[in-house]
Structures are given as structure tokens and as C-alpha cells.
């Protein structure tokens, strides 16, 4: 009895909601015909706007930017080093920076790109719930570590091959390395700070 009574109330309830529209009852289903006006400026309302209704694929394409040797391309950097450094020091340093600039746009750039896609992760627990706190790094991240040691990105500033100009050589090399390093310049900065404290 309750069910039949509730069912008898449903049409009245819906009709009250749709009191301003035309409602048709068929087999206990009620549908409302509603006329919606298109807002000004939408497709189909203004004549001639149908050409923007669907996206269109054309023949336009754009070449990806290519990274070139940043040391040779940065005129302000090269002229500043030439002005600040003694000539014999500049000749030695510029050869190293030019060679390193070529390595950056090739091997280092690709490693840094892949390192960004596979960033280091902290694994706090193993599969059995034991605390391990392992930092998982990719092959590219490990390779960037090796290259940093090979190029002396930290050691140059402390070996003092060029005496007081060694630090400038180191910072310039890091300047070329950092944008393409996949953020490996972050642990290098911490290593540099630790080395400075130990030396003091």
C-alpha cells in the first residue's frame, strides 16, 4: 500500500518541478521538452561561425629548438672571461670550456633529459615492512655523477691549478652544466659546500 501510494505521488512531484514546461507521461516516465537559447557568440548562433566549430589539421609544423655550444654562443660570457682572466689563463680555460660545451649539448643534455623523466625516489620500506630508506636513482643520474667527477666540476675550485682564478673556472663550468644536468647540480652544490667546510 505504501509503495502504490508513493508511486502515485511521483507524477505530481515531478509535475510540480516541471510546472513551467510541457510534460508528457508515458508508462510512468516523464520527459520535458525544454527550449534552450544559444548565448550570443556560440557556434551555430551567428551566421558564418560554423568554420570554427571543429578543429582542423593543416600542414603547419614547427621545428624543435636545438641547443648549441653555450660557451661559444654566449658572447657576454666569453668577453667577460677574456677581460677578467690573464691571457695565458684564459687560453687554457677557454679550451676546456669549449670542449665541455660540446659535451653538454650532446651526451650531458640527453642524460639530463632522461634523468628528469626518471627522478630519484625514496623507498622507505621494503616489501616486508622493514625500514630501509633507500634512494633509488636511474642509470642516467649515476652517469651524470661520473661525468661530474671526470670534468672536475667540484675539484677544479680546490686544486688551484690557476690559483685565484680556479674558482671562476669552476663556476663557469657549472654554469654551462646546470641547465642540462637534470638537476644533478643540486647534489654538486651540497658537495661543494661540504668540501669548503672541510677545507676550512
Describe this structure in words.
The protein has 200 residues and is mostly helical. It has a domain at 75-199. It has helices spanning 2-17, 70-73, 75-84, 87-117, 139-150, 156-159, 166-177, 185-199, and strands spanning 22-26, 29-33, 121-125, 131-136. Strand 1 and strand 2 (29-33) form a beta hairpin. Helix 4 (87-117) runs antiparallel to helix 5 and helix 4 (87-117) runs parallel beside helix 7 (166-177). Mean pLDDT is 81; it is low at 1-31 and 41-46.
Question: What are the key terms here?
Answer:
200 residues, mainly alpha, 52% helix, Acyl- dehydrogenase family member 11-like, AidB_N, acyl-CoA dehydrogenase activity, 10% strand
Largest sheet, if any? Answer: 2 strands, antiparallel
Instruction: Give the tally of β-strands.
Output: 4
Q: Indicate the percent of residues in helices.
A: 40-55%
Order of helices and strands: HEEHHHEEHHHH
Radius of gyration: 34 Å
- Assembly type of the shown chains? single chain
Strands of the biggest beta sheet: in what spatial order? 1-2
**Portion in beta strands:** 5-15%
Cα separation of the termini: 92 Å
Characterize the overall form.
Answer: flat
Mean pLDDT: 81
Low-confidence stretches: 1-31, 41-46
Structural class: mainly alpha
Individual helix count: 8
Amino acid at each position: 500500500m505504501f509503495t502504490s501510494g508513493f508511486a502515485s505521488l511521483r507524477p505530481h512531484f515531478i509535475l510540480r518541478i516541471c510546472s513551467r514546461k510541457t510534460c508528457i507521461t508515458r508508462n510512468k516516465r516523464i520527459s520535458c521538452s525544454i527550449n534552450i537559447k544559444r548565448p550570443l557568440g556560440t557556434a551555430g548562433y551567428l551566421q558564418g561561425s560554423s568554420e570554427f566549430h571543429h578543429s582542423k589539421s593543416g600542414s603547419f609544423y614547427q621545428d624543435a629548438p636545438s641547443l648549441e655550444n653555450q660557451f661559444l654562443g654566449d658572447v657576454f660570457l666569453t668577453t667577460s672571461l677574456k677581460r677578467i682572466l690573464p691571457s695565458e689563463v684564459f687560453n687554457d680555460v677557454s679550451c676546456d670550456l669549449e670542449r665541455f660545451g660540446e659535451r653538454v649539448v650532446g651526451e650531458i643534455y640527453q642524460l639530463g633529459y632522461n634523468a628528469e623523466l626518471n627522478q630519484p625516489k625514496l623507498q622507505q620500506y621494503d616489501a616486508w615492512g622493514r625500514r630501509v630508506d633507500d634512494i633509488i636513482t636511474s642509470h642516467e643520474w649515476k652517469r651524470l655523477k661520473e661525468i661530474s667527477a671526470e670534468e672536475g666540476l667540484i675539484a677544479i675550485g680546490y686544486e688551484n691549478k690557476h690559483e685565484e682564478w680556479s674558482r671562476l673556472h669552476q663556476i663557469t663550468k657549472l654554469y654551462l652544466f646546470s641547465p642540462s644536468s637534470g638537476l644533478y647540480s643540486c647534489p654538486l652544490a651540497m658537495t661543494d659546500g661540504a668540501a669548503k667546510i672541510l677545507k676550512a
